[in-house]
Amino acid sequence: MGASKPNIVFIFADQQRNEVAGYAGDPVAITPNLDRIAGSGVSFTRCVTSSPVCMTARTSIMTGLQIHQHGVWTVSNPELRHGQSHVRNVRDAGYRTGIIGKNHLWPHEGGDAREHASELLEWGWDMALEVAGPTETLLTDSAYTDYLDQEGLLTTFRDYLDHYHGERVDGRHRIPPWELGACNLPPESTLDMFVANESARWIREQAADKPFYLQVNFGGPHDPWDAPQSYRDQYRAEDMGLSITDTHIGPLSTHVQLLQQYAPVKLDTMTEDQNRQLRLGYYSKLTLIDDCVGKVLAALEKTGQLDNTWIVFSADHGEMLGDHGLLAKKCFYDGSVQVPCLLMPPGGTTAEEKRALTCHLDIVATLLEIAGAESMPDSDGRSLLSFVNDASKPDQHHEGVLSELGLPPQAYTMILTDRYKLSIDTLTRTSLELYDLDNDPKELHNRVNDPAFDAVAGEITETIMNPMLAALDTSEWTQRT
């Protein structure tokens, strides 16, 4: 290949739970392509999202900044495209840049996703093919809906999505996932296969005059868990584990109470059989995503570029999957904030698993170092390349990693250390949750009101939390009554 620098393919899933994968030790999950990446690379088992919300986390990936630095607590600010962008830095380092899939830097509530194409170019992409996520495809057009329309399948898919939003059918806000069942689209016509096929096409079309940076953004395994029946048939409900439903001890955080109160699907009466069906749907969708990853790897192999390409895999946030009576995200339990983080260098390396605390911003710093690009000002990210280059490096990277959540008018902040997880009300700085993960890995006993842990909370707040939040100005925030 003519390019002296390696290519970079950053594969980004939506709502992918960290430990649901074969390489992560899940005996049920069928993920041969992710297992292949992990088997020839380094997996970071304690990587934390910048925010357990789609648009906020994705803005951090673009800017290399924490939520309180870029200010997107809920809906994105379009003016940020004129600020710092890791994509622009990579492009300026000599790369051809492209993004295909669910970008989600703005809401998709109708219209056409292509209306934002010029904004993506301003972020630094040379080519952008954006699609809406699966639920948003009900109302938002894109190149994918054009494809479905040409195949005579658009009504089929939108009828399925209409059924998923149960208020349009029988008055419920949303169909419970154990009732939803498979989508009757052919596997090759699913949203994520469309993204994979378009990504493979783009890879095949690249000239060898310069390296490329491609971001492949899948819409899954975000709900609806709409994998075709052939994927559901790969699993048996009786093989599925059960969600964490043990009794919680201590106070529930304010944001968890809000999630339970306003959840579109209530899980308090969910049976074990329903729980297993819920999980089967998610696992099926994840295996579909894995097959899509395989399409991208195959395109690199067939064009002779895999041995000159870095593969990076992660997700915007996790999925609660019924744990603690919750679905989706927007909380600081592990299921919501832990994300996969895989790095496979060109030609592969000896498989390593690292427990070092890492975060989204570290992925950004890693991408920039791979590209030989300028680093991001004011970013807390630290490149992970040293772990790839030196297998003997100790599992130490950050003293603590931060995740932030906006549920207007409230905002919350979490710090994860090697042993503890502390969350606070960002405005009042009141501690809300404290879990001793060494002795309570399921996060069932909130020690925030336990005097024996006052010193722990105080030390984390003073030495890690407060310095990280030093730049946060809340003087103009709406005070709660």
From TrEMBL:
One of its GO terms (cellular component) is cytoplasm. Gene3D superfamilies: Alkaline Phosphatase, subunit A. Coiled coil: none annotated. SUPFAM superfamilies: Alkaline phosphatase-like (SSF53649). InterPro entries: Alkaline_phosphatase_core_sf, Sulfatase_N. The keyword Hydrolase applies. The keyword Hydrolase applies. It comes from the Bacteria. Residues 6-373 form the Sulfatase N-terminal domain. Keywords: Hydrolase, Metal-binding. One of its GO terms (molecular function) is sulfuric ester hydrolase activity. This is Sulfatase N-terminal domain-containing protein. The lineage of its organism: Bacteria, Pseudomonadati, Pseudomonadota, Gammaproteobacteria, OMG group.
